Each structure stands twice: as C-alpha cells, then as structure tokens.
C-alpha cells in the first residue's frame, strides 16, 4: 500500500505548514505523488459506478481503490493529459473533460476516444466541455465553453440541432429530462432570459425551513462568487452567504454531508457541522490550501482535492470521534491519566513534565504545572476524592487539586510513586517502588520487590501487586502476606481492581486473572480475544464494564459474565494502540493514548459490516499480461505460471483486507485464505477451471465470490488425435525395435550354429590330423611284421589295442567335453602303441597335481594328442638314442595347464629336416588347436593358450628338446 500521512486538524489553533491543517475532532489522511497519485495538483474527483475514486490532474487521471493508484495518460487513450473535469453517468461511463475539447470516456477496462470509437469523432474547434447532463436511452449532453450544447447518443457526437437558447439554465430548467452529472455550477448571473417567470431571492434565511433544506440537498446549486443559491425552475433562493460566516474568498466548490456543509475556497476549507439543523459553528480547515473540489463517496468518506498538495481524505468513521493533542490545546501528545469532576464538568488530563490539562464543558483548556521536579515527573493517576477535589499521583509525590478554584497542594512527597487507591471510607493508600504507604498512618518500607499497584477491599484490608506476585495486608498486621494461591505468587502485576467481591489482576505479560477468595476463577488472555497480554491499566465504570488498557488497544470486559465483549483499536479510530488510561462518563468514553486523547460515544462506535467490492485487476500467463474478463482462454505454455491479480475497493483500512480463493468450484469447502491479492498457479495443465475469489474488510462479512472461468487449451501434441498418432508411432517404433532385436537374436543363433558347424569341422580336422596316414600305415606294417615273424599273439594284441584306440577316438570326437581320466587313458593307449611301433625307442611319464584328484575335470577332446604325436614323430623318432617324454598336468587358476616335454632333437632342428608335406601337416594341426581355443573363448569367455619352446635356445642350459605348454579351458565338478 502507498504510504499515507495522517494529519490532525483542529479548530482555532495556529496554522501548521506541510501536512498539518486544522479541524476539531477530525483525522485527515493525505495522498500525494509519492503514494502513486499522478500529480500533486488535482482538479476534480468523482466516484464511478463500480466505486473507484477518479482524480483529474494536469498529467492524466488516477483511479484509486483505497490501496493503489492506477494512472492513465495520453498513451493509455486520453485525448490530452490535462484533464480538468470528470463526470460519471448512469451507464457506468466515466467522461474526461480536457482543454482540447475532445471527448473520451472510460468503460469496460479501457478508454474510448475518437481513434478507437468512431462515435466520438467531433470537431470541437478547441472549445472545451464544462458541464454534463444525461437523459434517457443513454444520451449525454455537454455544455461547452462556447455556450453550445453537444449531444452524444452512442452512435455519434454532434452539436444539438434543435433551436435551443444556448444557456445551460435551459437544461437545469428541464431537469426531469436533463439530469445534471454535477451538483454545483459556477455562474456570473442568476438571470435566465428563457425563464422570465423565475423568482430570485437574494436573502439568506437561517435556519432553514425543512422544505428549503430538502431543496438544497436534492437540487442543483448555483455558485456566485461567495454566495450559494438553491435552484428550482420556479425560484432561485440564497441559502449561504460567505460574508455572513466570515468567508471573503470566492467559493470554488461545496459538498453536502447529511446535515453538514463543506465549503471550499482558493484559500481554505470550511466545515459547518449541523448547518441544516441551525448550528452556527464554522470550522476552518486546510488554511492556505487551494481547494479544487469536494466529494462525498457512497460510504460517507469526504475527499478534498487541492491545487498542489494532493488529495485529503476523511474516513466516515472519524466523524464519530473527537481528538485532543498538542496541536489543539494540550501540552504534548503523550497522555498518562484521565479523569473527570462530574460536578464541575471538568475533564482532567495528566501528561508528562508535571502538566495537568483541564478542559471545561465549553472546551476551554487550561494547563497547570504540578510537579516541577527534574527527571521523570509524569502524572500517573487521577482519582476523584472529596467534593471539588481530586487526588493526583505523579512520579514524585501525591497532590490535591481543587476543581472549583483550580488550585493544587502537595500532600506527600513520594519517590517513584506507582499507584494510588482510596478505601470506601476515604483512607488513601500509595504504592511506590519498594514501599506501601498508608497516608498519615504508617509506611511499610525497604521491601525486596517492586510494588506496582494497590487495591482496597475495605478500610483495613487491601491487596498489593508487585513484580513478584500478589500480597495481602491489613492495617493491623502492617505486613505483606503472599497469596495463598501458589500460581499468583510468580505473576508480574501491573494493576488491581476490587469489584463486588472479586479481585481483577492485570499482569505485564499474561493477561487478566480473576480471583474470589483464594481461588482463581478466570483467566483471560489473547487466546480468549484479549487485545494483548500486556495490561497497562484497569478501569471500572461502576456499572458492569471493566476496561483493560493494553499496548494493542482497549478490551471491554463484562464483569458479571466475565467475558470480553469487544476490543477497540486504532483500526476503529483511536489515535494509537498504546493505551495509558480509560474513563467513561454519561455514555462518553475517553481513551488516553501515547498519541493523544480520543473521546466518543462508546455505544455508537461505527462498524462497517458491508462486504467490499472485489474486482479482477489483470491476468498474467507466462510473460504476458491480459486485461480482465469473465473468461480466460489461452493455449497451454510449458512451465508457464498463471496468476490472477485481484483488488478491492476499500478506502478505510485497505491493508486489513483478506482474500479467499477456491479453484475447485466447490463453495462449501476448499477455501484458501491469504492476505495477498495475487493468486498464483504454477504450470497450470490444460483443462477447464473455475476460480472463485471473495474478500472481506475489517469486521465485515465475506463478499459475494467473483468468478473467473479459465480454459487452458492443449497444444497440438496434447490433443487426443495427436496423442493417438504418437501412441501409434510409439507402437510402430516398439515393433521396429522388437523386430530388430529378434533379428539380432536370430543372427546370433545363426552365428552360434555356424560356430558349432565350424567346431565340428575343426574337430574332424583334428581327428584327421591326429591319426595321420603314417601312423596307420606304420601300425599296419608293424602288425604284418609280427605275423611274418610268427608272433601271432603279439600281433593280435597290437590289433586289439589299435582297434580300441580307434573306437575311443571316434567316441570322444562326438563329445564337447570329456573327463581328464578319459583323456589320460586315451593318451596312454596311444603312447603304448607308438612305443611298439618305434621298437621301444622312448619312454614316457605322466605327472599330475594331487589336487586334481578331488575333482572331475572336463576338457575339450583330442586337443593334447596332436601335440604328443608331434613330440614323438618330430622330436624323439629322429634321435639316435633312446628318448624321454614327460606329460605334466596341473591347475592354474581356473584353467588346466598341460606341458609336453621331450628330449628330442629340438623344434628348430626338426623344422629344418622336415619335408614340406610334414611341415604343412604340422602347421595345420597346431593352427587347428589355436582356432579351437579361440572359439571356446567366444562361447564361455575362458582364454586358452598354446606355446612351443625350443629348450636349447630358450635358456634351459645344454638341454635339447621341445617344451609345448597349453592352457585349456575346463569344466570343474566336485
């Protein structure tokens, strides 16, 4: 909200420059450029059909809802920035009168002018409009500075074609047809040549007859210099002559507020309260201010526009209050105590600096300095005592003040006096810092606590409140006794009141306690709607109301029912919420605050329960802002925030307006309460929504909900058909992917099949290479030789072993894996046959690791035999002496290590003497083994290895022979 300036304006005080002016009992707020007003010079003010207040300035117009100004200039549609008058018609149009004479009006959120509305095209010839009238069917008539009538019928603007005398009094005379859109008219003469029968009365009778007063209130008024006339077609009657009231300046404008009359001039504002009831008291306000217009809005608030000092605003409820402070008679604005001598009708007001103010029934204020001590010397307590006498307690002593003679005397000097009380028989008791004093009787001094308050039950018994709990004392014992109630012994007490057998305790931080005897019967705090838990003073009006002065207003408690009936705060019209004291007399409630004294009829406190007018200000979606409307339709924006900004037309306490919104369309529940007028919905998804918003102002009911239909349209890809296409496309993609996967699986199966076929071929090759023709041929020759030598038995054994070896080889070739025992048995049978074939020219030996006996080891078949065959044929057979072959088998990690070690002629020497046929055979056998190891790796990931080492060349000393090492992937089972 814009920063506002509060000004107390009082009658018959010295003029104060800046933002201070004069008024009795009025608090005026000023709005200016820093608050958002378009210009400090304001020509006119008007309230439109919706309730907004509009201000015409030299730099455009301002639209005000009580919290913020919305300014319009030529760039927003005005025909000129210099707007001198405003008029609001019955159709809700607000007309702008500019010096260029071109017409424009505001309606349905934007300004119509001749550029966007052809019905407003009109050649004004630079004559500007002065007054406006409206007729039926939406016709509007304007009287311009050339004394011509301009007609607007909604379709076109033109000069009136009828033969009408160019005098706006003609329009006034026919007021039933031409209804004026303003109250008062400036004229140079009252004579109407078109109405010779009209009577003119220059005598201003006062007071008025009731029928004359009604004529002034309801009819048009003519202003001639500093005199006002009531107009009827039959008679023009003077009803106010400024000279009779001390007004010498020309009257610029006026406002009628019930029975009150406001007069604006170029030098000041005048307020005559009860003018139409015969009251002759005039109040001068805003001295040295040029008043340009006056407006009473629908709520009863008064708006005052000025030339160069912005707008002044008097809330309607402030007319119910009267105020006193240092601007209209008091010594200062800070007040500590208040009381009244009812016999002399003298109001006593205690302040700081030892000052007592008295105000008589006819509002004469006098000041007395009672305490001249330096330092703190405030008047803390004022109590009626004897006839024409009041007791006054200051920081430094107790005094007596005679209300008849207005003389005072010191009764007792007391340092740091806190409270004074009088017993039913008139015995005076004083609470002062760390002592209790019974005047002219005894003192209880040097207490180890701070005494804050005292309350007499009777002439003997009394209660003492301290910062350390509640105590009782009697004149007989003269000793403070702690309360029997343990919960009252730790309270920090500020004030006490004994009322009809109950003790009311005001604390410094825990609200109000009520005790009866030693029993606590009630505890009232802010949780029970007490204005604050910090109590500063208790005041009982003698009937049924206890007033609790707090730092946040006054709480009124019904002592019989012991409940809070209402709270009174600055929101209700008090000058401050820091309350020092309360006094009630004859229906008038006096409230002393740190910012002055406020008094009013306590039973006539104004309460505005009418719900506020709520309106949609604008809509923001994404980065764009849109004009308000009942429906909002927009294409969905990804991650865009939808915001609806609302406002209310509330001129009194706009900062206390609450909002509730509902996005479900259900009015029974789901309302969200907020103090913000911006309602955000981030990333609103496509769909139809109904946003309902309502508001309430201070102490009012909720307004009727304002509805906004929001339709967020889906993008093309969010449409059902687009989603269907996307779904089909997704299914097609899935099918393509599945087809690709299936194809890959089939290809993998095909490759696997090809690998198996290749393995079979390699195994066949291995089989072929294992048993080369030389071995078979030599074996058969050996059999023939044995037969010729008549060694039939040995030949038959050889043939049997040879047949078993061939059958075992064929069986193993059909398997992917064979056990290590089967492989060793096969190799042993093969070596035995080779020994026979080579006439026992070599010996062999198997070495196996012991741990191999704990498992059943499976290896690929026919992978060691070709190596053993090469060792015999190409290493041992060419040797001239007997040879030795060692086959070692052991585990290395998860692979089977096998070495074939011979002491033959060596790898290099063997290669040099081989025939080309043998080289091809050998190379093919070894390459087949390597390829089989590679294929096994592709299937199970195990890596095999084949390495051939010539021992003579590889650092084995002078040893000859060949060492072949092979790592074979295995399958191991327990």
UniProtKB/TrEMBL annotation:
Keyword vocabulary terms for this entry: Coiled coil, Membrane, Transmembrane, Transmembrane helix
Annotated SUPFAM superfamilies: ATPase domain of HSP90 chaperone/DNA topoisomerase II/histidine kinase (SSF55874), Calcium-dependent phosphotriesterase (SSF63829), Quinoprotein alcohol dehydrogenase-like (SSF50998)
Top-level taxon of the source organism: Bacteria
Positions in coiled-coil regions: 738-765
InterPro entries, A to Z: Bact_2-comp_sensor_kinase, HATPase_C_sf, Ig-like_fold, Quinoprotein_ADH-like_sf, Reg_prop, Sig_transdc_His_kin_internal, WD40/YVTN_repeat-like_dom_sf
GO terms of molecular function: phosphorelay sensor kinase activity
Segments traversing the membrane: 720-742
Record GO cellular component, one term: membrane
Domain Signal transduction histidine kinase internal region: 763-841
Protein name (record): Two component regulator propeller
């Amino acid at each position: 909200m814009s920063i506002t300036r509060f000004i107390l304006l009082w009658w018959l005080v010295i003029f104060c420059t800046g933002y201070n002016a004069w008024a009795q009992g009025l608090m005026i707020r000023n709005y200016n450029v820093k608050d958002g007003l378009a210009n400090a010079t304001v020509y006119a003010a008007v309230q439109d059909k919706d309730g907004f207040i509009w201000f015409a300035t030299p730099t455009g117009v301002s639209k005000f809802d009580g919290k913020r100004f919305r300014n319009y200039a030529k760039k927003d549609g005005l025909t000129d920035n210099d707007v001198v008058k405003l008029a609001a018609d019955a159709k809700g149009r607000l007309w702008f009168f500019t010096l260029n004479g071109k017409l424009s009006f505001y309606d349905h959120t934007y300004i119509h002018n001749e550029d966007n509305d052809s019905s407003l095209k009109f050649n004004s010839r630079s004559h500007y409009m002065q007054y406006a009238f409206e007729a039926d069917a939406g016709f509007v008539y304007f009287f311009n500075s050339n004394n011509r009538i301009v007609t607007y019928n909604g379709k076109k603007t033109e000069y009136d074609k009828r033969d009408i005398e160019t005098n706006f009094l003609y329009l006034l005379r026919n007021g039933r047809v031409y209804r004026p859109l303003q109250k008062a008219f400036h004229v140079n003469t009252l004579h109407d040549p078109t109405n010779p029968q009209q009577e003119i009365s220059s005598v201003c009778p006062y007071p008025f007859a009731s029928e004359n007063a009604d004529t002034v209130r309801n009819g048009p008024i003519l202003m001639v210099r500093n005199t006002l006339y009531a107009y009827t077609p039959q008679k023009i009657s003077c009803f106010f002559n400024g000279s009779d009231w001390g007004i010498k300046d020309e009257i610029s404008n006026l406002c009628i507020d019930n029975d009150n009359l406001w007069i604006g001039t170029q030098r000041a504002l005048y307020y005559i309260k009860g003018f139409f009831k015969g009251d002759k008291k005039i109040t001068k306000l805003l001295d040295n201010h040029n008043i340009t217009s006056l407006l009473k809005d629908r709520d009863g608030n008064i708006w005052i526009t000025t030339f160069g000092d912005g707008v002044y605003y008097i809330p309607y409820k402030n007319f119910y209050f009267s105020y006193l402070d240092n601007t209209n008679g008091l010594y200062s604005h800070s007040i500590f105590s208040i009381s009244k001598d009812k016999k002399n009708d003298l109001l006593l007001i205690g302040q700081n600096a030892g000052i007592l103010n008295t105000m008589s029934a006819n509002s004469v204020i006098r000041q007395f300095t009672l305490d001249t001590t330096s330092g703190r010397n405030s008047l803390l307590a004022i109590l009626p005592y004897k006839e024409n006498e009041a007791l006054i307690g200051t920081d430094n002593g107790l005094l007596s003040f005679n209300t008849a003679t207005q003389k005072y005397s010191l009764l007792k000097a007391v340092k740091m006096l806190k409270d004074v009380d009088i017993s039913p028989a008139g015995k005076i008791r004083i609470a002062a810092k760390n002592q209790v004093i019974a005047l002219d009787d005894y003192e209880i001094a040097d207490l180890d606590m701070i005494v804050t308050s005292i309350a007499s039950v009777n002439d003997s018994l009394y209660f003492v409140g301290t910062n350390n709990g509640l105590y009782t004392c009697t004149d007989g014992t003269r000793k403070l006794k702690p309360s029997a109630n343990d919960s009252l012994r730790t309270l920090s007490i500020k004030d006490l009141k004994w009322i009809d057998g109950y003790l009311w305790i005001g604390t410094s931080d825990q609200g109000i306690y009520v005790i009866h005897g030693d029993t606590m019967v009630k505890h009232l705090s802010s949780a029970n709607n007490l204005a604050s838990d910090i109590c500063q003073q208790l005041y009982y009006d003698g009937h049924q109301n206890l007033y609790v002065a707090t730092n946040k207003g006054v709480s009124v408690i019904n002592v019989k029912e012991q409940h809070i009936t209402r709270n009174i705060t600055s929101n209700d019209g008090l000058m401050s919420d820091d309350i020092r004291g309360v006094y009630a007399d004859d229906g008038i409630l006096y409230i002393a605050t740190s910012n002055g004294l406020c008094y009013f009829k306590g039973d006539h406190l104004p309460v505005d329960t009418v719900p506020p007018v709520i309106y949609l200000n604008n809509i923001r979606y994404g980065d764009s802002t849109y004009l308000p409307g009942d429906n909002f339709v927009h294409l969905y924006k990804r991650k865009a925030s939808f915001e609806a900004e609302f406002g209310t037309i509330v001129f009194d306490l706009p900062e206390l307006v609450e909002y509730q919104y509902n996005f479900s369309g259900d009015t029974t529940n789901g309302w969200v309460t907020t103090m913000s007028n911006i309602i955000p919905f981030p990333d609103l998804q496509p769909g139809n929504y109904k946003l309902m918003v309502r508001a309430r102002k201070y102490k009012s009911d909720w307004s009727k909900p304002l509805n906004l239909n929001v339709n967020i349209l889906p993008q093309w890809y969010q449409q059902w058909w687009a989603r269907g296409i996307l779904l089909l496309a997704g299914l097609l993609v899935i099918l393509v992917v599945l087809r690709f996967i299936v194809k890959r699986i089939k290809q993998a199966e095909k490759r696997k099949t090809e690998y198996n076929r290749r393995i079979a071929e390699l195994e066949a090759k291995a089989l072929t290479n294992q048993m080369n023709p030389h071995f078979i041929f030599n074996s058969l020759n050996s059999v023939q030789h044995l037969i010729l030598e008549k060694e039939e038995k040995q030949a038959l054994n050889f043939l049997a072993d040879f047949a078993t070896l061939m059958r075992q080889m064929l069986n193993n070739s059909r398997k992917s894996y064979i056990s290590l025992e089967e492989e060793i048995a096969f190799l042993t049978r093969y070596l035995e046959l080779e020994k026979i074939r080579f006439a026992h020219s070599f010996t062999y030996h198997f070495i196996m690791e012991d741990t191999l006996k704990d498992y059943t080891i499976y290896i690929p078949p026919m992978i060691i035999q070709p190596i053993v065959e090469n060792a015999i044929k190409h290493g041992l057979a060419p040797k001239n002496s007997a040879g030795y072959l060692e086959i070692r088998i052991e585990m290395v990690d998860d692979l089977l290590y096998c070495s074939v070690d011979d002491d033959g002629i060596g790898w290099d020497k063997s290669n040099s003497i081989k025939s080309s046929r043998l080289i091809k055979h050998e190379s093919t056998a070894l390459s087949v083994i390597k390829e089989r190891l590679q294929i096994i790796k592709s299937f199970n990931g195990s890596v095999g290895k084949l390495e051939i080492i010539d021992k003579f060349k590889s650092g084995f000393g002078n040893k000859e022979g060949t060492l072949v090492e092979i790592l074979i992937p295995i399958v191991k089972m327990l």
